[in-house]
Amino acid sequence: MSRPTRPTRPTRSPRRALTAVVGTAVLLVGGATASRASWAASTAVGSSASVVAATVPSVAPVVAKRTDGTLGFSVAVSWTAVTVEGAPVRGYEVARFVTPLLGTPTRTPGSGACDAVLTVTSCLDTGSLLGLGGALTYVVTPVFATNWRGTPVTSNST
Questions:
Q1: pLDDT-based confidence at residue 36 (cuts at 50, 70, 90)
Q2: What is the rounded end-to-end Cα distance, in angstroms, of the chain?
Q3: What is the domain-level CATH number for residue 74?
């Protein structure tokens, strides 16, 4: 009596396996930072695969300069422009935080042009009375495409 033969497993192409491993690694690493990744693969024998990944860089530094006036003060905020693979980012999300003398920072709407996603690299927060007796800081986050963001960078206190 002969033994039954086991069905053989189909062999996988080394390139196909490599594509899967590299693609998975890109997704895992990309989850830790703001990234953009794409890859192209084919199941045809002898085909090639490629992987491309990019990150949205942070702006640096964010500088806030306070100017006192008779009716409060204004704060000029500026930062460096960034690109992703040579393409400009969609904009820069600017957030203002007020820290009372003995309190914790709280996000508050900015006034003037510092409370939005901006396409320029500076803004002027005017009529700022909320920081009196405390400090103001600004956080700038580059935004690329629809949902890709760089690491937020905090300004000096004013």
A1: low
A2: 90
A3: 2.60.40
